[in-house]
Design a protein that fits this description.
about 0% strand; globular; membrane; transmembrane; transmembrane helix
Length: about 110
């Protein structure tokens, strides 16, 4: 649960420090991907900054490319600190989410009884 708490803090920090700055720039505002729910663009930006280059090229060719954030534009308008914060947040988000799902499965299997 501590990992989830730290991830929540990183979510707010990344949203306030990086994504808020990107939303204010007109050339980047439309490149943050689709926001299905409030704050979804924060996840889009973090995942785009953590995606490998070869995978980013596959996203561009896809019909669903408008759903994800454009990594090339984001790299031009972010600093090294923003990218490091994105990676720390994204990998803690993935690890804490995967850990919670794993614990749920183990609990359903009766490992913790």
């Amino acid at each position: 649960m501590l990992g989830v708490f730290i991830t929540c803090i990183l979510f707010v920090l990344f949203g306030q420090l990086t994504v808020r700055k990107l939303r204010k720039k007109p050339e980047v505002k439309d490149k943050l991907g689709i926001e299905f729910a409030s704050g979804w663009d924060i996840l889009n930006v973090a995942s785009a900054l953590c995606r490998p280059k070869w995978m980013d090229n596959r996203y561009k060719k896809s019909r669903l490319s408008g759903l994800a954030a454009n990594a090339e534009v984001l790299y031009q308008h972010t600093t090294l600190f923003d990218r490091i914060l994105a990676r720390i947040f994204w990998y803690s988000y993935v690890m804490s989410g995967s850990g919670l799902i794993l614990m749920l499965i183990l609990n359903l299997l009766g490992v913790f009884d």
